[in-house]
Design brief:
alpha/beta, Dimethylsulfoxide Reductase, domain 2, Barwin-like endoglucanases, 3 domains, six-stranded mixed barrel, 29% helix, 18% strand, binds iron/sulfur cluster
């Protein structure tokens, strides 16, 4: 675009955050100063609206708190004392220290740590991935989000691709299962409202009374982590009452007879006992789902962080095939659109996964604390390189992570925009660009548009992008392979060099001109109306031989998490309340904006939601300060007493920086760093805690 009018230029770009909506935006620039940033009104999905988090993105860009120069630590780790140094000195020292670690322990003693500080194809993990693979560093398994849900859905229908989001407008029953759409998937909500206005019924399944639950026609509130039991109970009702689509099941599914036998274990009375729901509510939900056409289920993040996550997604994914919901538009399952982008773009050429030597050691990102403190880890982690991430806040078992970050013998580099809680422990903090200062290319996990992000202004201070950082560091370490020198524009062209039909008509020049372009998907998107699931059998697999081969139950089932009242009654006797730590997603994005005065003021203060039935016996009144604890840590904050949670469940927001939280501790001080039952993600929503009143009161925050 780049419309130049009277010295003013408008540059198209995209919001980089960990959010399915991937808003297209327009940046108005005068000279080298961005003076306005607003949503692109022409974008068909995001339609010119940014969320409350990002509306003032330029405050972030021009914040006086930005790190704009390389910094070297001068005080104790965590104290936040640094001195400014030149890039030349910083790169020299970092390259030297990395070489020393490699010489002493080998390259796997280096651990890169990153996640979704940006979700851009370039800046998230392209040049960095090539660089660390070339070094032979430990691989980071990035499974904090998404992977568990994808594994469960893929085991059932062979892919995460189902309905298109726009087709929810055609639905007549929409079940939003584990997703606070209004807050975390803002631009899907108008489509749901459109369906609602046309007569659709909206059901929310969520243990918490979120904004979305409050706006729904029906809120179903199971105990956390019991979603598979609910889905199995619904299936049991549907089959027992003959409400399933027998023809679709016969032609397009595998293992129905075995599933039927399994459903005998999940009669609605038992499902009710497992989920804490009323038997009648499970029966009503099953009947409504099976007898309304088209019927859609939208699944997202809420269930991903339980030990039972994969099986929950798997059980829910069976429902659309059971009732033949895939037959018509507006019916089926909506999970991620990312796989469509993944097929279209040339991700392999971009990320070059072949550079990682087979068998290279891997550390799961959920277990950073364990990796940094395990005395038996061989070789130990000698150097930690953090970018696009703030693990001191976002990683479970926070106190163990902080213990690891305090290690004197750990060399830590953090590439950041702000002095985060993680950066305070770094030996070197390197200044990172914001989204208006660098190139990127974006896919989306919530819609089907590819978006180009052009730098609107020159980088502030001495900030550089992640791609530029790893190009410079590679050169400083004497690595001169051409793939470590590729420019950002060439990287974008590499990603777009694809002959996949979905990318037909989308190239760099078109994106330069328009900012975004739709994937070229077939009209009348009905991928499984006549079967053809991309599973080994070509059918929706109620029974999966692939899972059986991995030693996993081939049928959907429900198993309680280890850290749950049913999984560990002894622990539950000490810590009787289940803690949920949902995102503070209205004003924070994970831990981003957790230091912004505007966002902190809007978010007010973190509080603990507790039901009156749990507050009363503990002598806790609304607004009183409480201590929430288990054997991993403790957090103090005000209580909000009410029915936003069900009895037995408490909730506090994640994303708050511990250094800026009342009492100096935040939600992840309490969360476990175990793995899910299939091993594909973290179980940090399975925390058990106890709560007590402490002296001194604090005013309760306003309701969300
Ligand atoms: S965080 Fe999400 S909704 Fe907000 S501007 Fe970014 S992409 Fe849009």
């Amino acid at each position: 675009m780049g419309n130049a009018t009277l010295g003013t230029t408008v540059i198209p770009g995209a919001c980089p955050h960990d959010c399915p909506d991937r808003c297209a935006w327009l940046v108005t620039v005068e000279g080298n100063r961005a003076v306005k940033l607003a949503g692109d009104p022409d974008h068909p999905f995001t339609r010119g609206t940014l969320c409350a988090k990002v509306n003032h993105y330029l405050d972030r860009v021009y914040s006086p708190d930005r790190v704009l120069h390389p910094l070297r630590r001068t005080g104790a780790k965590g104290a936040g004392a640094f001195e400014r140094v030149s890039w030349d000195d910083a790169l020299h020292e970092i390259a030297t220290r990395l070489r020393q670690v490699i010489a002493r322990y080998g390259p796997t003693a280096i651990l890169p740590y990153s996640f979704s500080g940006t979700q851009g194809q370039l800046q998230s993990d392209t040049m960095s991935g090539r660089f660390f693979s070339r070094l032979g560093a430990t691989r980071l398994e990035r499974t904090v989000c998404g992977s568990t849900g994808s594994a469960g859905v893929e085991a059932t229908i062979g892919t995460t691709v189902g309905m298109l989001p726009e087709d929810l407008a055609l639905s007549r029953l929409i079940i939003l299962w584990g997703t606070n759409t209004i807050v975390t998937n803002l631009h899907l909500w108008p489509i749901i409202r459109q369906a609602q206005a046309a007569g659709a019924r909206v059901v929310v399944v969520d243990p918490l009374t979120t904004r979305t639950a409050a706006a729904a026609d029906w809120h179903v509130r199971p105990m956390p982590g019991t979603d598979a039991a609910l889905a199995l109970g619904m299936m049991a009702v549907i089959v027992a009452e003959g409400l399933h689509d027998a023809a679709y099941v016969t032609e397009h599914t595998l293992g129905f007879d075995a599933l039927k036998d399994r459903l005998a274990e999940y009669r609605p009375e038992r499902a009710a006992a497992l989920t804490g729901l009323a038997t009648e509510e499970i029966i009503r939900l099953a009947r409504a789902y099976a007898t309304t056409r088209p019927a859609a289920i939208r699944v997202l993040i809420g269930m991903e962080h339980h030990a039972t996550a994969e099986m929950s997604f798997r059980a829910i994914s069976c429902l659309p095939a059971l009732i033949g919901a895939w037959r018509e538009r507006g019916g089926g399952l909506l999970h991620h659109t990312m796989a469509l982008h993944g097929q279209a773009l040339n991700g392999r050429a971009l990320r070059m996964p072949e550079l990682a030597a087979p068998g290279t050691r891997a550390v799961n990102m959920m277990r950073l604390g364990q990796a940094l403190t395990d005395p038996t880890l061989d070789p130990p982690i000698g150097a930690l390189f953090v970018y696009n991430s703030n693990p001191a806040t976002t990683t479970p078992n926070q106190n163990l992570v902080l213990r690891g970050l305090r290690r004197d013998d750990l060399f830590t580099v953090v590439h950041e925009q702000f002095l985060t809680d993680t950066a305070r422990y770094a030996d070197y903090v390197l200044p990172s660009t914001t989204e208006v200062e660098h190139w990127d290319l974006f896919t989306s996990w919530g819609h089907t548009y590819v978006t180009l992000n052009r730098p609107a202004i020159a980088p502030l201070g001495e900030a550089i992008s992640p791609t530029e950082l790893f190009r410079r560091l590679a050169a400083r370490m004497g690595l001169d392979e051409p793939y470590l020198r590729e420019s950002d524009e060439d990287l974008i062209k590499t990603a777009l060099r694809s002959d996949h039909p979905y990318l037909r008509g989308v190239d760099f020049e078109r994106l330069l001109a328009t900012g975004w372009a739709p994937l070229d998907l077939p009209q009348d998107w009905l991928p499984y109306a006549t079967g053809q699931f991309p599973t080994p059998s070509g059918k929706c697999e109620f029974s999966s031989a692939a899972l059986a081969a991995r030693g996993i139950d081939p049928l959907p089932t429900y198993l309680p998490a280890d850290e749950s009242p049913a999984g560990d009654p002894e622990r539950a006797a000490r810590y009787p309340l289940t803690l949920l730590t949902p995102k503070s997603a209205l004003h924070f994005l994970n831990s981003s904006y957790g230091n912004s005065p505007r966002h902190l003021a809007a978010e007010r203060a973190p509080c603990l939601d507790i039901h009156p039935a749990d507050a009363a016996p503990r002598g806790i009144a609304a607004g009183e300060r409480v201590r929430v604890w288990n054997d991993r840590g403790a957090v103090e904050l005000p209580a909000r007493v009410g029915d936003r949670v069900r009895p037995g469940v408490v909730a506090m927001p994640s994303g708050w920086w511990a250094s800026l939280s009342p009492g100096g501790s935040s939600a992840n001080a309490l969360t476990p760093d175990g793995m899910t039952l299939w091993g594909g993600g973290g179980d940090f929503h399975d925390a058990l805690v106890e709560v007590e009143r402490v002296s001194g009161a604090a005013p309760a925050p306003e309701p969300e």
